[in-house]
Amino acid sequence: MTPSISTFTTRLSDAARIVEASLEALLSDKPASGEIARPPRLMAAMRHAALGGGKRLRPFLTLEAARLFGREGEGPLRAGCAVELLHCYSLVHDDLPSMDDDDLRRGRPTVHKAYDEATAILVGDALQTLAFEVLADPATAPDSAIRSDLVLGLARASGLGGMVGGQLLDLSAEGRYGPAEMDEADVRRLQMMKTGAILTFSVEAGAILGQADQAARGSLVEYGRALGAAFQVADDILDREASAEALGKRTGKDQDKGKATLVDLLGMEGARQECRQLVERADAALDAFGPRAQTLREAVRFVVERQV
After folding, report:
1. At what angle do helices 197-209 and 163-172 cross, to 10 degrees?
2. How far apart are CA 245 and CA 279, in angstroms?
3. How many helices and strands in the chain, by DSSP H and E?
4. Cellular component GO terms, alphabetically (predicted)?
5. Does the domain spanning 5-305 belong to CATH 1.10.600.10?
6. What is the pLDDT of residues 75-132, one digit of tens each?
7. What are phi and psi of 286, to 5 degrees?
8. How far is the C-alpha of 79 from the C-alpha of 296, rounded, in Å?
9. Three-state DSSP class for 109?
């Protein structure tokens, strides 16, 4: 039975509240075991970056993927929070004057505007290292092999062959380092690295926690890649059609900087057709899981139909 949109959004909202509470605990002023102190300014800026906004889609995907294999509770929640901390770090650094130079994020001043640029750099550094600390903690998974697999997966998704490498390609697309002409394959590779890799790992983390076999894990990775690609195409569409007030951030950035997107290369209707095809691809990847994967099916539809 297909859940209604209201049922899905309620489930997403409920997960977001749980994740928010867990992030608050992780970002408390009280030093953790082995820490000397947590500077108040740093902690306040980290909370500004990570709390009080966002749909928490990435941890939601981790929670739902783990649930496919009967894994619920603290482990999947902590793994999801680790991915969200990594994601928030990327946003803080992405907003810096040397990157996208944005003043607004989630309807609030970006960290370098609310505090200063040096603090924003340190906030990103601290959120990133905290993400790996959370994954490496036995509280996330008693089995050290599972923790190692999670750390390796997030490192590869977020590092030079994933998000960070994608960010460099994104800067190159602005013409900073030479000619900026990009064809469709270039744009797809950039988006797969910068945005898609972390979204894919968000799903794969659930399979790792659930000790899924190779076939099941591969199916979830394929689903995650389709969802990640759909997310970026939908984001490019929103960037052209939605207002900055609705999105809570500046719109039209790529167009202003002359960066090609799939909307430019395929046209608006072509981009919408791409989204439909990616939904079908994500659906097909979940066939082996049957009705148990219905929430994940709804997640990819939510990604392409969202208005903010």
Report:
1. 170
2. 28
3. 16, 2
4. cytoplasm
5. yes
6. 999 999 999 999 999 999 999 999 999 999 988 999 999 999 999 999 999 999 999 9
7. -95, 0
8. 17
9. strand
